[in-house]
């Protein structure tokens, strides 16, 4: 009996370990009830939305330092500001990333995941995300407030966890080695080079296109909202675990995986979800397509180039229409 148990012990231990890792990962994304318990424990609640939205109503006790995607990034390169600058922003806001931090924004907003990734990247390890955000909170009938929460300033060391991201140079080296799993979290049009957002369009060769919206129960929710086909964003809630596993079934959870998008924001959402599903080595390509697409020495499939002349012509035509509308309004007012 003991001999048989000894024979299967390694498999049992591996299964238990994998289950433990998966359970830890699944704790990263929380629901309204878990958010309430975190508030009771005294966790820091970070509302990553812009200040105007925050002041219109937020979860009681939540702090805000403005739109995380704007405040923490160089908007030209769409990369992080220098670490010392981010430290000053966090310190002034009282955001101690080494404490338990709950992050939220609007439901499904990838900038919430970007904020979570930022905490982890600079050395925090107790951060979690409330995916359904302020929308889920209101739907649950929970209270909001317009009163600003101000935390006492702190002084916290930020230590970059470089193993969580890859740079342009590292990405090219990993790609050339060949033993890499690449996920493109952009739209199908971006992937196919039809929607060009850098010097050129297309995608990294061998990358698998799984738009980050596919993580949602209804991936078309944003489009439906823009067309006023639905009145609210409940379709942006996450798929259940079984459906998410089906979505990423073609990927190997034991293989090194890099996720990219335009600038690393949408990739942060997919990366978090893959880790929740038990993927062991997942990284965000920080500069993403902005870095790869603008490097003409980097290989690309379905490659297209930005037609600057055609773009200028469209801008000129749009400006002419705006001028006509302004003239018409002036004539009407006279």
From TrEMBL:
<dbReference type="InterPro" id="IPR051126">
    <property type="entry name" value="Thiosulfate_sulfurtransferase"/>
</dbReference>
<feature type="signal peptide">
    <location>
        <begin position="1"/>
        <end position="23"/>
    </location>
</feature>
<dbReference type="Pfam" id="PF00581">
    <property type="entry name" value="Rhodanese"/>
</dbReference>
<keyword id="KW-0677">Repeat</keyword>
<dbReference type="GO" id="GO:0004792">
    <property type="term" value="F:thiosulfate-cyanide sulfurtransferase activity"/>
</dbReference>
<keyword id="KW-0732">Signal</keyword>
<protein>
    <submittedName>
        <fullName>Thiosulfate/3-mercaptopyruvate sulfurtransferase</fullName>
    </submittedName>
</protein>
<keyword id="KW-0670">Pyruvate</keyword>
<feature type="domain" description="Rhodanese">
    <location>
        <begin position="176"/>
        <end position="301"/>
    </location>
</feature>
<dbReference type="InterPro" id="IPR036873">
    <property type="entry name" value="Rhodanese-like_dom_sf"/>
</dbReference>
<dbReference type="InterPro" id="IPR001307">
    <property type="entry name" value="Thiosulphate_STrfase_CS"/>
</dbReference>
<dbReference type="InterPro" id="IPR001763">
    <property type="entry name" value="Rhodanese-like_dom"/>
</dbReference>
<keyword id="KW-0808">Transferase</keyword>
<feature type="domain" description="Rhodanese">
    <location>
        <begin position="39"/>
        <end position="146"/>
    </location>
</feature>
């Amino acid at each position: 009996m003991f001999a048989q148990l000894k024979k299967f012990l390694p498999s049992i231990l591996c299964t238990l370990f994998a289950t433990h890792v998966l359970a830890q990962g699944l704790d990263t994304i929380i629901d309204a009830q878990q958010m309430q318990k975190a508030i009771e424990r005294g966790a820091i609640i970070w509302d990553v939305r812009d200040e105007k939205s925050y002041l219109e109503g937020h979860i009681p006790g939540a702090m805000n330092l403005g739109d995380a995607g704007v405040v923490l990034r160089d908007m030209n390169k769409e990369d992080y500001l220098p670490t010392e600058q981010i430290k000053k922003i966090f310190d002034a806001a009282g955001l101690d990333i080494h404490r338990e931090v709950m992050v939220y924004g609007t439901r499904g907003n990838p900038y919430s995941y970007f904020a979570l990734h930022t905490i982890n990247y600079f050395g925090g390890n107790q951060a979690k995300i409330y995916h359904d955000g302020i929308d889920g909170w209101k739907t649950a009938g929970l209270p909001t407030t317009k009163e600003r929460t101000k935390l006492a300033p702190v002084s916290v060391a930020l230590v970059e966890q470089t193993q969580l991201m890859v740079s342009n140079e590292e990405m090219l080296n990993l790609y050339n080695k060949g033993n890499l799993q690449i996920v493109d979290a952009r739209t199908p049009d971006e992937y196919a080079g039809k929607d060009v957002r850098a010097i050129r369009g297309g995608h990294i060769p061998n990358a698998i296109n799984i738009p980050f919206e596919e993580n949602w129960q209804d991936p078309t929710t944003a489009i439906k909202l823009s067309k006023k086909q639905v009145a609210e964003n409940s379709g942006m809630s996450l798929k259940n675990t079984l459906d998410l596993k089906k979505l990423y079934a073609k990927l190997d959870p034991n293989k090194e995986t890099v996720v990219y998008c335009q600038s690393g924001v949408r990739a942060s959402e997919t990366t978090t979800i893959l880790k929740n599903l038990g993927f062991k080595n997942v990284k965000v390509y920080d500069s993403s397509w902005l870095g790869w697409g603008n490097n003409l020495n980097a290989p690309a499939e379905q490659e297209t180039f930005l037609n600057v002349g055609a773009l200028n012509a469209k801008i000129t035509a749009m400006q002419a229409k705006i001028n006509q509308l302004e003239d018409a309004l002036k004539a009407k007012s006279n």
